[in-house]
Write a structure and sequence with these properties.
The structure is a homodimer of 248-residue chains.
Chain A (H helix, E strand, L loop, with lengths): L1 H5 L22 H10 L1 E5 L4 E3 L7 E7 L2 E6 L5 E7 L4 E2 L10 E4 L3 E7 H10 L1 H27 L2 H20 L7 E4 L4 H8 L3 H13 L4 E3 L3 E4 L2 H8 L10
Antiparallel strand pairs in A: 1-8, 2-7, 3-6, 3-8, 4-5, 4-7, 9-11, 10-11
Helix pairs in contact in A: 3-4, 5-7, 5-8, 6-7
The first copy, chain A, binds a DNA duplex (30 and 30 nucleotides) through α7.
DNA sequence: CGTCATCCTTGATGCAGATCAAGTCAGAAA
DNA sequence: TTTCTGACTTGATCTGCATCAAGGATGACG
């Protein structure tokens, strides 16, 4: 655990897998050089906590590989996931010095971090970063609003289908599959994490996944490896009007 | 309707009621002069639609007075509110040319608008605007995440209490009441709109409001005028761990 | 090889909130 | 005044998901 915290990752920004999608996407070579010198990598094992809500947070950063979650907990233990962080997603809020949510790695995760202070100073001088961060935040807001529709108005079956569609589409875009016809991916979340995402219990998640399997909407190999024979069918089950093009 | 669309509002930015909270909050006098010349006011009557999802949107703007809602609708008519726009809140997304959601005025509303193109150009040259917009968007994202917890994990009674607390706190901050002890306000939403906010039916909203009244958590005069004798008590009913200081 | 823990599935039952169905109330129009 | 309409309330019943409970599968580790 300690070891992994400090483990160095000898990446150059130039061949960074999230170079064109992360907060640094718009930076010019000279700006990138500065960032390159500021940045440091941190690794987290699956299940490890990145930060607790309320704790002092002196860095911001991007998920390079892996999946992490943001969750909020009520005093009696009910928990709701409020963010699903995939590669290129940003964590931390400039201008705030404590974490607002629990962040947990659900797979092994590598993050590219910057100490908050220098990053904020750089933001003030480098419109390319603030610009990109605004764009990413607006995208996240759209995703949060789409998610609110799922939480507020969809049935359990539709919720599961929606989540599978989101993960499937994002995975497809990373692996250059097309998000139609057959797509294949691994679930990066336990049943419980899916329940926390969707405002359900893990039993209901399990039942609905079994039902979708029984109805041929998905096929499972083990508990995590999912094949969607017809993505169109899955989208229908999700109950959206449009094809959900917003989320990416 | 047409008349109200075009009605001019002879405001100077200097004495604008949302001057210090809106997207222009950080602008300097010279920048304000430019905005002052670009801006135009639009008024909407209660119930009037500001814009339909998917429609071309060639302006952005701020709510000056009144309350509007953003809603998303599934094909079978299920509706979820995804944004509640109070004075100083921003509507529209720079860089996008169609509306993503339905926007409806729920009370009479006055908006301060800018044509999108000139506003975007100004944003590119005026970091103060982009800066403030980033900050506001991050706040909205926090609010959306808080809302997700409400939608996903709270009971009907807690949902109602949460909504009353949010409206009460915001109203209090506008009218310089303190958000503790007794506070008094008018609901700017119908029962149906509250239901769409909270992912409930209007019957359940009505029943839970009656229950809170019966239990002395709130008092009602007519259907809309609410007195909260002890704001602390209402917060307890909302089931949050903290005092929800984030939302404002 | 067993055993232990974690994650998951499935069944039985209960209940919160949805749905269906009458009303009530207050303000506007006639 | 009556009538109408839109917003709201309340009651009766239904149902989707939660809850409670038991057991299965897989992999790590002795």
């Amino acid at each position: 655990m300690l070891k992994s915290d400090l483990q160095a990752m000898p990446h150059e920004c130039g061949d960074c897998p999230i170079r064109h999608r992360a907060v640094c996407a718009r930076c010019e070579p000279t700006e990138l050089t500065v960032l390159d010198q500021m940045k440091f990598y941190r690794s987290f094992e699956a299940g490890q906590t990145v930060i607790w809500a309320g704790d002092r947070m002196d860095f911001v950063g991007s998920v390079v590989t892996g999946v992490a979650t943001l969750t909020q907990t009520l005093e009696d233990g009910r928990t709701q996931m409020v963010g699903l962080l995939l590669p290129s997603d940003f964590i931390g809020r400039p201008g705030r010095d404590t974490a607002a949510y629990n962040a947990v790695a659900t797979t092994d995760v590598v993050m590219c971090c910057f100490r908050k202070k220098p990053f904020e100073e750089m933001m003030a001088h480098t419109p390319h970063i603030a610009e990109r961060l605004l764009e990413m935040t607006l995208d996240e807001l759209d995703a949060a609003r789409e998610w609110m529709v799922v939480l507020g108005r969809k049935t359990a079956r539709e919720k599961i289908a929606s989540l599978l569609a989101i993960i499937g589409r994002r995975t497809a875009s990373l692996t250059l599959q097309e998000a139609r016809g057959e797509i294949v991916f691994d679930l990066p979340l336990t049943r419980e994490a899916m329940a926390d995402y969707l405002g359900l219990t893990l039993e209901t998640v399990s039942r609905q996944i079994s039902a979708l399997k029984r109805d041929g909407v998905i096929a499972l190999e083990g508990k995590r490896h999912v094949t969607v024979p017809d993505f169109r069918l899955l989208m229908d089950e999700a109950g959206d009007d449009a094809d959900g093009g917003l989320l990416v």
